[in-house]
Amino acid sequence: MDWIVSLTPEVSEDPFAALASPPDGASVVELRLDLFPEIDIRAAIAACPLPVLATLRSAAEGGRGADDPATRAAILT
Question: 35: burial class by Cβ within 10 Å (0-12, 13-18, 19+)?
């Protein structure tokens, strides 16, 4: 069975430590970019031995990210 684990500040204030040691049984790690707005995305992905699903949830989606498409695109590129 495949498991996706979500990385949020409640899980770890140090996202790089959490990414480097994902929980046993996890097959993918979700990195909530809206909850770690200052993170270096490329470095975070490189720190994880598993595939990383980077999500950027807007306020309309229940997250803390911007709703403006241009702002969201700038974060993701």
Answer: buried
pLDDT tens track for 8-32: 888 888 889 999 999 999 999 999 9
Q: From CA 27, how far away is CA 39, in angstroms rounded? A: 22
Q: Which residues pair with 5 in a beta bridge?
A: 29
Does this model's pTM top 0.90? My answer is: no
Question: How far apart are the C-alpha atoms of 51 and 61, rounded to whole Å?
Answer: 23
75 torsion bin: left (phi>0), alpha (psi -120 to 50), beta (else): alpha
